[in-house]
């Protein structure tokens, strides 16, 4: 399950690759300009992704045993 | 004495007390002093790493950018987020190696991985040259915050002296333990202050977050997104990438990695830190709220947006709390920088040239270097003028030059030789210096390229030069060396 770490590529794709398409003020989402909402959404998703990676990463459990 | 001043002083004394008592029950050898005996759990490491994001620069500069530049400000939350993703992979490797080899500083890491104390000296010098302007910036910010928040009753110079003295005292006594304890107070303060201001001000002046943004969009259409030229989409992507790579290359941030007691500390932090840094969002909101309320701040005065709007809105005691939070955002990183710079000079420069020095002598020297570096920084703070601004712009790009040889050294088969690492870092650093001092951008260097390429962060060039030189130089000598070893084994 070390392959789970490939999920960590997603934040890079979402933030760096997505920004050309998200670079606009409207529509406002949750009160924020669209570009800001896009970045904030990815920041939160990143935390979720990292939690998933942490949960399934075999190295984490290996270390807990020692 | 007004209410604001009393509150600022109370917090100063509290952090001084916490900083000094942190020493209790510890035998302060260099390992205890500079990396906390490698015993910090998730919370302390979290706070030390978060300290890197919430500096005076983000407090004043984050709101100042939102006020003066608009959309491009959002890069600040983007690069931190990606840096934490990288940290999940990179930090446990660095930590494990450092623990096995009993390393104390970033330069130790290079010296040990490449088996070259001289490379350690080079890395230390690059680090110190980048750190001092960074410290000066914190001190300047501290002066501005305290003098504004005390309604001018304390001059900026007096505030800076008081701040530096307090930090010097607790760093000399408690080292990193002092930084960690003051970081606790600092983060609670900044959390409360930022969230409160970031919600209260937009609701108070505009009736909500969305009405505020709509009003700004009406007054300055497009200001909240990235412009077509200059800080455009390609500027954003290249800058976020570069700063994410450079994030952990600051010697004081790198050094705080060693203080953890296990590798899982970093993996846990990588989950929490992205969300935690969203606190910056509220700092941005303050800057945005100021745009239509105090519209006359020009140039570097934009950094005063948060303080001026708060003074206009609140009673002195609230301003005092803001001032105290600002003071702490300068003191915590300031203490880490002082300690790191002293450790680098004592252990990675002095010790290399006088190998007979005992560990005890090195530890003592490191502590006595703290006031020396503090005084040098004070000198630049009061007399630096424009040189310091140039150095500061360079700082981030300078430490980013350490990234290629560091990351490659974490790989199983590292092809980079010590000569390659040395030459690559020097080539990168010289390129950064040339570009910054001559004020070049990709646009001025290559005016015929398309706009999107011209807007790329110029640091990319230095990094490419660095990587090319590292690879080429690593390639040449290894051949002759491998021939040598063949001969000797025959």
UniProtKB/TrEMBL annotation, chain A:
The chain crosses the membrane at residues 34-56. InterPro entries: DUF3311. Pfam families: DUF3311. Keywords: Membrane, Transmembrane, Transmembrane helix. PANTHER family: BSL5891 PROTEIN. This is DUF3311 domain-containing protein.
UniProtKB/TrEMBL annotation, chain B:
One of its GO terms (cellular component) is plasma membrane. Keywords: Membrane, Transmembrane, Transmembrane helix, Transport. It comes from the Bacteria. It holds the Pfam family SSF. Its main location: membrane. One of its GO terms (molecular function) is transmembrane transporter activity. It is found in: Membrane. The chain crosses the membrane at residues 6-22, 43-67, 73-95, 116-137, 149-172, 184-203, 233-250, 271-297, 317-345, 365-382, 388-410, 422-446, 458-477. InterPro entries: Na/Glc_symporter_sf (IPR038377), Na/solute_symporter (IPR001734), Sodium:Solute_Symporter (IPR050277). It is a multi-pass membrane protein. Belongs to the sodium:solute symporter (SSF) (TC 2.A.21) family. This is Putative sodium/solute symporter. It comes from Parageobacillus caldoxylosilyticus NBRC 107762. The lineage of its organism: Bacteria, Bacillati, Bacillota, Bacilli, Bacillales.
């Amino acid at each position: 399950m070390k392959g789970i770490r490939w999920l960590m590529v997603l934040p890079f794709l979402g933030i760096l690759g997505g920004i050309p398409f998200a670079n606009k003020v409207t529509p406002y989402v949750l009160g924020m300009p669209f570009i800001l909402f896009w970045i904030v959404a990815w920041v939160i998703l990143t935390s979720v992704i990292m939690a998933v990676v942490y949960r399934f990463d075999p190295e984490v459990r290996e270390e807990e045993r020692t | 004495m007004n209410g604001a001043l009393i509150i600022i002083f109370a917090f100063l004394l509290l952090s001084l007390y916490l900083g000094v008592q942190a020493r209790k029950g510890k035998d302060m050898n260099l390992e205890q002093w500079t990396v906390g005996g490698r015993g910090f759990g998730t919370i302390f490491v979290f706070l030390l790493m978060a300290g890197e994001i919430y500096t005076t620069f983000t407090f004043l500069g984050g709101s100042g950018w939102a006020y003066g530049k608009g959309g491009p400000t959002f890069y600040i939350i983007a690069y931190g987020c990606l840096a934490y993703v990288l940290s999940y992979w990179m930090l446990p490797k660095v930590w494990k190696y450092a623990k096995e080899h009993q390393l104390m500083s970033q330069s130790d890491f290079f010296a040990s991985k490449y088996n070259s104390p001289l490379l350690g000296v080079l890395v230390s010098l690059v680090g110190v040259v980048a750190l001092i302007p960074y410290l000066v910036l914190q001190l300047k910010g501290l002066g501005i915050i305290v003098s504004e928040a005390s309604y001018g009753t304390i001059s900026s110079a007096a505030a800076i002296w008081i701040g530096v003295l307090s930090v010097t005292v607790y760093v000399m006594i408690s080292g990193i333990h002092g930084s960690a304890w003051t970081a606790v107070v600092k983060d609670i303060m900044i959390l409360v202050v930022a969230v409160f201001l970031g919600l209260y001000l937009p609701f108070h002046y505009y009736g909500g977050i969305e009405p505020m943004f709509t009003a700004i969009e009406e007054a300055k259409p497009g200001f909240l997104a990235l412009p077509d030229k200059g800080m455009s989409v390609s500027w954003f992507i290249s800058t976020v990438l570069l700063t994410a790579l450079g994030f952990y290359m600051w010697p004081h941030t790198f050094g705080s990695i060693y203080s953890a007691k296990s590798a899982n500390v970093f993996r846990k932090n990588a989950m929490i830190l992205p969300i935690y840094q969203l606190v910056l969002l509220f700092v941005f909101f303050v800057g945005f709220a100021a745009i239509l309320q105090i519209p006359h701040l020009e140039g570097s005065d934009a950094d005063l947006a948060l303080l001026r709007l708060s003074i206009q809105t609140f009673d002195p005691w609230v301003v005092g709390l803001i001032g105290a939070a600002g003071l702490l955002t300068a003191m915590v990183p300031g203490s880490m920088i002082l300690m790191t710079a002293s450790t680098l000079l004592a252990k990675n420069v002095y010790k290399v040239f006088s190998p007979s020095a005992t560990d005890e002598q090195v530890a003592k020297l490191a502590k006595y270097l703290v006031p020396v570096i503090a005084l040098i920084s004070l000198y630049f703070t009061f007399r630096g003028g424009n040189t310091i601004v140039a150095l500061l712009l360079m700082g981030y790009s300078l430490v980013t030059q350490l990234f290629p040889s560091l990351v490659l050294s974490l790989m199983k088969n590292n092809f980079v030789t010590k000569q390659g690492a040395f030459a690559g870092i020097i080539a990168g650093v010289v390129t950064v210096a040339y570009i910054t001092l001559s004020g070049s951008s990709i646009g001025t260097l290559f005016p015929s390229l398309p706009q999107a390429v011209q807007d790329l962060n110029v640091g990319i060039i230095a990094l490419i030069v660095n990587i090319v030189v590292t690879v080429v130089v690593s390639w040449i000598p290894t051949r002759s060396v491998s021939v040598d070893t063949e001969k000797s084994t025959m």
